[in-house]
């Protein structure tokens, strides 16, 4: 048998997306309890598995948000099958699927050079902060469910490179999660989502017009699950976001390289206090 011809790449079905999420847990990425169904909603055609002689050995997500932007994540090769070219073949399949889009990723810092070979350029670092939060209640913070969904989608689009209504509907509506909004002068001025993970919780996204609104949202989210270990991933290019994390007693535990194949999307990074996820951007 030919090892190369015995390797195939195929799309994952909705029920199979749990597999790469489980592999992510084994890698120590601590995914959310309901990440699989939410991720799937972003692009049902963007999840791939590499099989060697019928056995799943590699996975990748290549989410096409629209015709102009995509994001690569969940790139995992089972340890015993690494170094045999399976990962690169799967990677190329995902990149071919995304075609001419501007593609983003969050990669470990040590792999930057490999990503550069695939046409990616460093935009900035994302810093993972972690800490225990008790939270506080603020009168200007309310449940996202009280807001017309279209207004939330519109605000999110201002802070993310593409519209993602289907993903957002799943993300804010998932079990074991809280979605809060801030309203100023009858308009959305920020929102955030906290979801329970295998260990503790993660906040993301956390988008806000300024650091005070972001801090109130952070407090409100923490108050819903007090005493839990909370993770917040912030772009280093937003000093106010870094300061918010440190002000809440969080410590830096990990960093990624946010990279793109084209110019970084023109979004107001000063309003991004927490990225949605390292897997989907």
TrEMBL record:
Keyword Manganese recorded: no
Tagged with keyword Transferase: yes
Pfam families noted in UniProt: Acetyltransf_1, Acetyltransf_18
Assigned keywords, A-Z: Transferase
UniProt-recorded Gene Ontology molecular function terms: acyltransferase activity, transferring groups other than amino-acyl groups
Domain N-acetyltransferase: 7-148, 139-274
InterPro entries: Acyl/Acetyltrans_Enzymes (IPR052729), Acyl_CoA_acyltransferase (IPR016181), GNAT_dom (IPR000182), YitH/HolE_GNAT (IPR041496)
Protein name as it appears in the record: GCN5 family acetyltransferase
Native organism: Caballeronia mineralivorans PML1(12)
